[in-house]
Amino acid sequence: IYGICFTAQLLAFIHGGTIGRLEKTEAGYLSHTLTAEGKEDRLFGKMNTIFYGAHLHQDYVASLPSNLDSSVLAERNGFIHVYRIVLPNGSIVYGVQPHPEMSTPDNATLLVRVNEKWLREEIGDNEYNRALSVPNDADYGLSGTITNFVKMLKD
Question: Residue 87 carries which DSSP code?
Fold first, then answer.
C-alpha cells in the first residue's frame, strides 16, 4: 500500500501510530531528508538524500506503531514525512506526507495556488508568497516513486 498525505496519516493511525497537529499549516514545495533506513529502502533509497515534495497539510504522523516493524524513511524539521511499516503477513505499507503526484515542475505549487484565498487567511500574505516559490536546487524525484512502487509490485 502506498498512502499519500491524509491516507498516510490514516494508515499509520489504524496500525497503532499517532497523529499530531502542526501549530501552523505547512504549504509549498519543501525539502526532506532521507534517514539511514530511507537510504537503504528499495523504493526511497533511489532518491537524493535531500529531496523535495509538494505540501499542504496541518496534521502529521507523530509516531509509528511500536508493535510492528516500522521505519522512518524521511523527515522534515524532525517530523516523520515518509515511513514504511511491514505487516505480519509481509505486506508493506508506505506512507508519504508530501504529494508525489504534485511534485512535478508544472504542479509543484498547484496545491498552494488552488487554495489561495483560504491559505492567505490561514498563513498570511508573506508565508503564502514564500509557499509559491520553488527552490533553485529543487528536484522532482519524488514523483517517480509512484511509478517505481507499481514496478516494485510487479517484481
Answer: -
Q: Which amino acid is present at 100? A: P
What is the per-residue pLDDT across 27-86, written as a single tens digit (0 to 9) for each? 999 999 999 999 999 999 989 999 999 999 999 999 999 999 999 999 999 999 999 999
- Evaluate whether 52 touches 74 at the Cβ level (below 8 Å): no
Side chain identity at residue 132, one-letter code: L
Q: In whole angstroms, give the CA distance from residue 128 to residue 21.
A: 19
Q: How far apart are CA 50 and CA 44, in angstroms?
A: 11
The answer to whether the CB of 84 falls within 8 A of the CB of 38 is no
Helices and strands (H and E) in the chain: how many: 6, 6
Rounded Cα distance, 20 and 79, in Å: 10
CA distance 80 to 63: 8
In DSSP terms, 99 is beta-bridged to 54
Q: Which amino acid is at 36?
A: A
